[in-house]
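Chapter summary example.
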Amino acid sequence: MNKHFLLACCALYFAVPVLAQVETENNLQVFNTGNQKITSVAIDHSLNFIDGNLPQNQVKAEPACIVNGENWEQRNPTKFPYSATVFLTLENGRSRCSGAMIGKYTVLTAAHCVLENTNFNTGKLRDPQKIEAFAGGDRSALHAHGANILIPEQVRRLNWGEEFIKHDYAIIVLDEPLGEKTGYFGVQKASVSVNESIAVLGFPGRRDHTRPWYSPGKVLEVAKGVFYHDADILPGNSGGPTVKSNNLRNIIGVVSFEDPFKHVNGSSKPADQALVSFVAAYRNLAPIAQFTQPVTPPHIGSNGKNKPPLQLPPEILEKLKRRPRPGSPNTLEEIKKYFNQTH
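The structure predicted for these 343 residues follows.
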């Protein structure tokens, strides 16, 4: 048999497992920093909308506004949806982005905000514990640190460009349930057309960050995986929610970048069904979930008699004991029991 033929067969054989991780139109590969694993999320093509939740002390969302001749307007950080618009500091404050609460513990933002370097992307993510989220502004008493990050695996393999932008979204899981007090956005499959009125919410650079900014605009162009608009954005707006101006409580896109080459102010990654399915899969994640993933050695069964006692870092156990949450294990014994039952 021809040795070149044998080599080709071997190459094909060893390539097959790699292809199993490739994203398709029916599944999204998601990397989780909590357990350092890649999980496949099914894309639900019938899922077009996920409802949000208003703060307990607010019975309806702040009405949409019409701003005549003014591209920026600061908004009340105690009123939804501005209360759920998040100012993010990265690497202990060296970089900044915007985001949106989409669950009690979860923030939707741009993937390029949580990657260390998008121009020469190595796939390495920022340390989630060095990310701090401030609900409604940088002086807000409602703030929390990151616990783990979920991001499309595809975007970790790409440098900046059109393909990157199609996957430019991520979820940060916080260590405190800010969403219980701020409320959280819904997410709606983007159906936008040219000249439709939209708005960008967030914290643009070189402006006051004590309250969120509202920037209205119109859609200029709709392309595959991105739509361009003339809502003003600056560095710092990245990751903030894009909404329709007549419906501020539902996210239709995530702010990605400004594009001076196309002579437009900004662009947003639209909420397609991959993004909506991604949010549906992870919006209810709580920080303890990163410690209850299947991380025990594979030779130890869930009912194995030789299972070793729970081994978690002392600082994590102490943190979990200090921060009881409804429905979560609170005491050390409960944590151990919960962990062992789920493995």
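To summarize the output: The chain is about 15% helix and 30% strand.
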